[in-house]
């Protein structure tokens, strides 16, 4: 049994989204404020059974340890909910049935894949008599408990508020003492003025989670999130029990795990916030020999009794004189009282202190009899402690699921059966972990969850790990087919709000059934390429693709010092990827999926028509030759990026004269060299020079800086020589020939020999950065609109 996918509706910006879970690990990735945390919060709210009483679980009325407030409803739904309030206040009919409310309430659909051999486990959830295994869906809705009571209470409270508002308005019309005049722009509101105001206070009292069985025959299996949530029949009744009891266990590691500076007191510590406490809890739950003792506990119990007996003898021996002195006092009604000291050896207490776990800081090469030096856990770094803590917590989850040790004996008989599925939710494990430890954690986590004799590769029991993260290091360590990318979507209308889609990257990076044959090679290249670089593009707001090392080295300086793009571009999270010119276009499908503003910086790579040499006669070996760009020569562009993103155009004259709007396709803008106006010698007329690549464009944009370089080497020396020639034509030809030198070394020499603030970016790069800044600003505005608050009395006017 596995969870195939999860649908979330009406929860914050997750208006309607589907998250496909991988068989083992699933990582939720995306830029800030894209919905990752909302997805985890929704799962925890609906599925978390911590702190719920058996009675509440049985009734289905239990509340999660994570609360849901009115602000957690998708903002665009409030317009309709406020309309319900308006109608009720005016004695009109609207929102009279639970079916009217359900499409607006937070909803979680869980779709399980159930094998035929497991049907007996879900007999209480079988949707139809024809169902014979496969997908099985359950919907959990946070909906009104009693709609009639909700309506009556809202009307009573609103009418009382309305009456008070009228009184306040009448009082405002009376003359006021000038000394008690109210400040200008003062507004006086009385609760509740709308359904939203009412539910902001009352939602936890008026709402509850109810569960419904879905029809697998009506499921939409599309993976592009363009599905419609299944509608419930009006007459469908909710279940009167928690639907997943006995099917899967849910365990959670929160983002706030209680680790902090050991010298700082936080007032109230989380349970298990240090390793000693966790060890103590594990021992008490699974290993304590005094709890439900069995044959295997005899030796331990005997050792505890012997230790207690020996300690009692020692206590009474050392206190002999003191006890005799007390015994000689006598008490009224007693004759020669006899006092005996008795201790209690409790193994639980022996672990409940920080020195119960020691970290040895020496290793003995042989048994010298000299004790090794060690430190208690408080003296170890947060990262190391946090790693051990999370791993130990997962071990505890696993052993509790598998009913290890005393856990099986302590449970009621009906709860002793192991659930076939274990779902583990981990929020932002990168907190307090440095990069290397993050990688260790995600590589080992699933193995820890399966490290049990009945688990391993066994298909009888399944474990599914879901991790939300902002860390590119975690994303780098797993297969990209396990990533689920949260893509921000702007508002589409005045009553709409920004939402999020979830992109299943297995359709981009996967294999087999998830990929078409003709794109599999490209997908493999993209995955392999990203494996050799950081995966920060999955968390970025924008992307810049560059062709070579020189652009990659200097681009951060151009962003930071761009006079026209100001600091907002430098403050944005931009991922700069270096991709060779012949491969950048292969990222097209991935960039389209991510939907991020992307600047592609490429070279024109001018080429002249092929010239056949005598030895090539009769063969197809002739190829276009690279050449210095010139107009009206019939040259072509060899740039794959230009030809791919700009509609296949390859004529160099067309490319060099292309207007701005034709360099943009959707959210992608291609930037490449064009004519650079330059006054080569003092007194000469301004002339345009056409560079071949980024490097000669830098030189032609900063001629005086290159001419004044002290002791240049390599390509920079050749460029300085070229800029000191007599004519611009000779200069451009010499610059073109200098491109054979190491380009990355040239960029590093520039950083060493010049102040980056004095280096002016070529015009085509400045234009591209200005476009990227504007695109990011536009996206930010689209993603942060306000939903106007409309009160019932305003709507009634």
TrEMBL record:
Top-rank taxon, per record: Bacteria
Domain Endonuclease GajA/Old nuclease/RecF-like AAA: start-end pairs: 1-475
SUPFAM superfamilies per record: P-loop containing nucleoside triphosphate hydrolases
Residue numbers spanned by region Disordered: 612-635
Ranges for domain OLD protein-like TOPRIM: 538-605
Pfam short name (any one): AAA_15
Gene3D superfamilies recorded: P-loop containing nucleotide triphosphate hydrolases
Signal peptide location: none
InterPro entries: AAA_GajA/Old/RecF-like (IPR041685), Bact_Antivir_Def_Nuclease (IPR051396), P-loop_NTPase (IPR027417), TOPRIM_OLD (IPR034139)
Protein name: Uncharacterized protein
Origin organism lineage: Bacteria, Pseudomonadati, Pseudomonadota, Gammaproteobacteria, Enterobacterales
């Amino acid at each position: 049994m596995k969870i195939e996918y999860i649908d979330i509706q009406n929860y914050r910006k997750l208006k309607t989204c589907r998250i496909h879970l991988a068989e083992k690990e699933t990582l939720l990735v995306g830029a800030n404020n894209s919905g990752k945390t909302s997805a985890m919060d929704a799962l925890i709210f609906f599925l978390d059974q911590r702190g719920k009483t058996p009675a509440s679980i049985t009734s289905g009325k239990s509340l999660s340890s994570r609360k849901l407030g009115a602000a957690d409803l998708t903002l665009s739904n409030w317009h309709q909910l406020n309309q319900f309030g308006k109608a009720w206040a005016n004695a009109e009919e609207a929102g009279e049935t639970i079916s009217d409310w359900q499409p607006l309430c937070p909803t979680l659909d869980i779709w399980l894949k159930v094998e035929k051999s497991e049907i007996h486990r879900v007999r209480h959830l079988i949707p139809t008599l024809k169902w014979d295994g496969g997908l099985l869906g359950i919907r959990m809705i946070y909906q009104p408990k009693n709609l009639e009571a909700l309506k009556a209470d809202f009307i009573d409270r609103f009418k009382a508020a309305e009456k008070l508002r009228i009184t306040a308005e009448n009082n405002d019309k009376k003359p006021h003492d000038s000394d008690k005049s109210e400040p200008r722009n003062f507004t006086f509101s009385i609760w509740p003025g709308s359904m939203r105001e009412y539910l902001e206070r009352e939602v936890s009292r008026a709402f509850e989670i109810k569960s419904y069985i879905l029809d697998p025959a009506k499921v939409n299996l599309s993976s592009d999130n363009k599905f419609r949530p299944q509608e419930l029949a009006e007459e469908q009744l909710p279940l009167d029990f928690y639907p997943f009891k006995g099917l899967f266990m849910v365990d959670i590691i929160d983002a706030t795990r209680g680790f902090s500076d050991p010298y700082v007191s936080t007032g109230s510590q989380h349970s298990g916030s240090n390793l000693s406490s966790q060890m103590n809890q594990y021992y008490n739950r699974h290993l304590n020999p005094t709890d439900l003792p069995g044959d295997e506990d005899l030796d331990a119990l005997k050792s505890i009794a012997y230790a207690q007996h020996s300690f009692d003898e020692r206590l009474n021996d050392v206190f002999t004189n003191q006890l005799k002195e007390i015994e000689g006092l006598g008490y009224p009604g007693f004759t020669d009282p006899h006092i005996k000291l008795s201790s209690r050896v409790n193994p639980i207490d022996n672990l409940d202190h920080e020195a119960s776990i020691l970290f040895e800081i020496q290793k003995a090469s042989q048994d010298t009899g000299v004790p090794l030096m060690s430190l208690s856990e408080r003296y170890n770094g947060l990262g190391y402690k946090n790693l051990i803590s999370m791993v130990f917590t997962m071990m505890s989850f696993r052993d509790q699921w598998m009913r290890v040790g005393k856990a099986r004996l302590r449970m009621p008989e009906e709860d002793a059966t192991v659930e076939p599925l274990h779902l583990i939710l981990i929020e932002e494990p990168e907190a307090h972990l440095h990069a290397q430890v993050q990688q260790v954690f995600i590589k080992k986590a699933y193995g820890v969850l399966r490290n049990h004799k009945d688990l391993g590769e066994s298909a009888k029991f399944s474990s599914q790990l879901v991790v939300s993260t902002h860390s590119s290091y975690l994303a780098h360590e797993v297969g990209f087919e396990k990533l689920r990318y949260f893509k921000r979507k702007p508002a589409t209308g005045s009553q709409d709000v920004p939402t999020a889609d979830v992109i299943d990257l297995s359709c981009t990076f996967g294999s087999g059934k998830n990929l078409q044959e003709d794109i599999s090679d490209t997908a493999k290249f993209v995955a392999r390429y990203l494996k050799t670089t950081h995966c920060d593009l999955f968390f970025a707001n924008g992307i810049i693709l560059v062709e070579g090392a020189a652009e990659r080295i200097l681009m951060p300086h151009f962003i930071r010092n761009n006079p026209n793009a100001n600091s907002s571009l430098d403050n944005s999270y931009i991922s700069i990827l270096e991709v060779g010119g012949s491969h950048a276009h292969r990222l097209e499908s991935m960039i389209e999926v991510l939907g991020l503003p992307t600047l592609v910086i490429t070279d024109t790579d001018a080429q002249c028509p092929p010239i056949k040499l005598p030895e090539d006669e009769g063969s197809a070996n002739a190829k276009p030759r690279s050449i210095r760009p010139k107009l009206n020569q019939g040259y072509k562009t060899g740039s794959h990026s230009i030809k791919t993103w700009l509609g296949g155009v390859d004529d160099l004259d067309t490319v060099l004269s292309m207007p701005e709007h034709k360099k943009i396709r959707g959210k992608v803008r291609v930037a490449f060299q064009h004519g650079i106006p330059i006054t080569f010698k003092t007194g000469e007329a301004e002339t345009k020079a056409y560079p071949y690549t980024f490097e000669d464009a830098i030189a032609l944009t900063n001629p005086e800086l290159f001419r004044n370089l002290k002791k240049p080497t390599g390509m920079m020396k050749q460029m300085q020589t070229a800029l000191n020639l007599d004519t611009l034509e000779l200069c451009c030809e010499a610059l073109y020939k200098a491109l054979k030198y190491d380009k990355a070394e040239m960029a590093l020499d520039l950083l060493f020999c010049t102040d980056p603030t004095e280096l002016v970016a070529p015009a085509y790069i400045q234009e591209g950065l200005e476009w990227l800044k504007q695109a990011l600003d536009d996206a930010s505005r689209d993603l942060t609109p306000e939903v106007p608050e409309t009160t019932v009395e305003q709507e009634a006017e």
